[in-house]
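Quick one, T. Sequence first:
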Amino acid sequence: MSHNYCTNVQRTSNTMKLSAAITVAAVSGAQAFTAPVNKPLRPASSLSVTQGDLDGAQSMIDGILTEKNCGPVFVRLAWHDSGTHDVSLADKEWPASGGAIGSIRFDPEINHGANAGLAGAIKLLEPVKEAFPGVSYADIFQMASARGIALAGGPEIDMKYGRVDATSPEECSPEGNLPDAEAGPEGKFGGPGGTASTEDESAAWHLRKVFYRMGLDDEGIVALSGAHTFGRAYADRSGVGAEKTKFTDGSATKLADGSETTAYTAGGSPWVEDWLVFNNSYFTTINDASTDEELVKCTSDKCLWEDAGFAPFANKFADQEAFFESYAKAHKALSELGSKFEPIE
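Structure tokens:
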């Protein structure tokens, strides 16, 4: 789901369309990653993973997050891997329904318009796979997302590990399953591509077509949207976002422990002022007309307060405890979509 609706690009008939981080996600990264995956990746894991390997992988991931402040792009990577899931295909032979299966590492999926900039995030995590080859890519991507949120002050998510990896590009989902932030030139969100049409003139119903296809509900859609508190939108990925703002110009920005950092690549536009802290500020900012004009507010954000089904949750999540409870539940569900698990030794 994204983190972050406004962080991606889909191209339909050579027209740039704004796409959500699935997303909801979509979540733009703290670093500007654009390099393609142009070298052979390590093979998928075929043996049961050990708890020791998972602990070691988590320690390495925590170190990368602390050094690079790249939690937002890891959230976006994991969500775009899992967000391809189509629950209507769950009775087909695995992994036909897509989901959190590590397939995003393959071309063509990594080169889908919605995944612009994510190849670099995979490269950042490649040393973890090299050090702990028994841990699947699917687990590494989902672990990096959950740890990014936890280290940024968000909820600890009850993650399950032992995912089996997709093994070839033939197991990638078709392009078009992820959500749009804004309507295309014909006034419609989404399109006929992917495993099912997500096209609609309403931003809210477009989001429902995307996330209901995954098996999620209105509460989950709104909760996952709250991850926009974490990260930035970039014009070269989504068509949304300034070259830089007063919040992303290289000056110090706050971290969850109250300290400040300048260890990030300047650029992009955040949804909230303290964009490296995971809290509920999205729900106290988007619907406030007095907030700074340099903050991003996409149509797919604002509709959460305008739609009768979404609004009760958007208002409820102005309370951080309520948001964290729902968010942790929705994130866990998203992280397990379409996954096949092996036992942990």
